[in-house]
Amino acid sequence: MIPESFIQELINRVDIYDVINKSVPLKKAGANYSACCPFHNEKSPSFTVSPTKQFYHCFGCGAHGTSIGFLMEYQGLSFVEAVQELAKIAGMIVPEETRDTDKPQQKIIPGMQEALQTALNYYRAELKKSPRAIEYLKGRGLSGQVAANFQVGYAPAGWQNLQSVFPQYESEVLETIGLVVKNEQGKRYDRFRDRIMFPIHDQKGQVIGFGGRVIDPEDTPKYYNSPETPLFQKGNELYGLFMARRAMRDACRALVVEGYMDVVALAQYGIEYAVAALGTATTPVHIAKLTRQTDEIVFCFDGDNAGLKAAWRAAMNALPALTDGLKLSFLFLPSEHDPDSFVREFGKEAFEAKVKTALPLSQYIIQHLSADNPLQSQEDKVRFLNDAEPILQQIQAPRSRLFLSKRIAELTGVSQDEMQGMLKLPNIQRQQQARPKQTRTPVSIHRRFLLMLLMRPDLVSAQDSSLIKGETDEDKMLRAGIEAAILYPSSKPAAILHHMQDKSDPKLMREVERELQLLDESLDVALEISGARKQLIEMRQQRAHTNLFDTIKEKSLSELTEEERALLRGLGNSQKNSM
């Protein structure tokens, strides 16, 4: 794990304005900066960035977070990748994570990234020299501009062409990143030969591997990818994602296809929100990366047997990552077409019309399970339930699982309760009914104290923790804030909020971040926090008195302690003074 102290220092050191302004041009708006939100379409700016508080907030769609959160949402990076990217900006070194010593780790060798970029430059230059490769791409309807956008290249025929750009051809780096292969006799040769080369980028735009497609249809295999390397794991990467992020957000949709040429050909026709899995079925990691960009994912497959099998694998792999806010659907093209050929023959409008007819995941599952099951006999229905059981058990999204299980119960002629008992699934409806409703005061003294400590954590003391005795969500949130302020008294609001996020209710945190963005920065924070502290002390004393009076009511006068007698005398005096 990356130490929390390092993350705090990183957020404090990096200026969120510099991070966001590189991708979204910001304009000065009073004490803050504003822009049209990069996470939803809008005409007037509702996206604000606070240099003082070091976080962003959109009043239109609710997007919010720190500089780390922005990189995760906008560039689709994982948490660790976002921290590493910010550390580069700040000139800091990320402490090594504690790893599972039982799991072998691939060796990171200096120079790997540079070698891949050198190879890319070579392949792109070779494309310009090869009329055969250029004619092939033109024959596939590819323009020079699109080929340039995707940095398409060509690996010429021959065994050791890369030796011309890598004098150290025997280097371990070239073998580790998959550019060079060594046979059993120890002879080294280029992995990619006489292939159209598609660079694979990570979500920062850096080359991490290649995919090569044959020109001669007689050659095999048709597609050939880089092997798994320290930089490239095919189960984690999607071809074209770096290029497609903005288009996905604009279209509110991601399209997952099977091949590189499908992605590039669709982009040629203005469908720029497509990505491809890299020689493997779609994984939960793929789904997680795509859901950072959009809430709708359409899987598009050829209508042949291979396409049908790939679609089912994708559906099953997606189940653990399914959420109630995510829409997954499946599109099957006619068996004689793939996305590349379909869009070239019928055009963009016809293809997107097809996309809109894609089967929702629930319908696709039912259709697949009943394809060879007439559901007529008791045995048919038992088999249907047996096939559905492992699928339902993998779905963690409560509403999605509820409605799918209802449909399965209808088709098999059993009640929901009967099916629930047979399949031993958790009773989602009962869980939802049992979930307690959260009640909170919109503007409470707890919230006020928290807002002030976010602005001046150095004004908080260890004694403040004793003021919070309750266990409501607001109590827990304020307690987490006080703890963070004591640990990091010099931190900015964004850093304190980051420390609190795993210990506080997410909805309350979003409300606090919104209120913080609207907070008047001319406030005398020291005076405000002193007043809030005084009110919390009075509230604590009032609770103590109330509890003491409740105790006194149950005692006779002779049983009272001196403290209880003094409390009664004080109450009597206050009543006389009020007469």
Give the count of structural domains: 5
Judging by the overall fold, what is the CATH architecture of the largest domain? 3-Layer(aba) Sandwich
From the N-terminal CA to the C-terminal CA, the straight-line distance is: 65 Å
Shape: globular
The tally of beta strands, per DSSP, is: 17
User: Sheet bearing the most strands, described?
Assistant: 6 strands, mixed
Give the helix level as a range of percent: 40-55%
CATH class of the largest domain: Alpha Beta
CATH fold assignment of the largest domain: Dna Topoisomerase Vi A Subunit, Chain: A, domain 2
Radius of gyration: 31 Å
Q: Note poorly predicted spans.
A: 98-105, 429-443, 574-579
Biggest sheet, spatial arrangement of strands: 12-14-13-15-16-17
Q: Beta-strand percentage? A: 5-15%
Count of separate DSSP helical elements: 25
Which terms would index this structure?
Dna Topoisomerase Vi A Subunit, Chain: A, domain 2; five-stranded antiparallel sheet; DNA Primase, Chain A; 5 domains; alpha+beta; 579 residues; single chain; disordered C terminus; DNA primase DNAg catalytic core, N-terminal domain
Structure description:
There is one protein chain. This protein is α+β, with helices and mostly antiparallel strands and 579 residues long. The chain is built from 25 helices and 17 strands. The strands form four sheets. A six-stranded mixed beta sheet has the order 12-14-13-15-16-17, with helices on both faces. A five-stranded antiparallel beta sheet has the order 1-2-3-4-5. Strands 6-9-10-11 form a four-stranded antiparallel beta sheet, covered by helices on one side. The longest helix is centred in the C-terminal third of the chain and has 29 residues, at 525-553. The protein starts with a helix and ends with a helix.
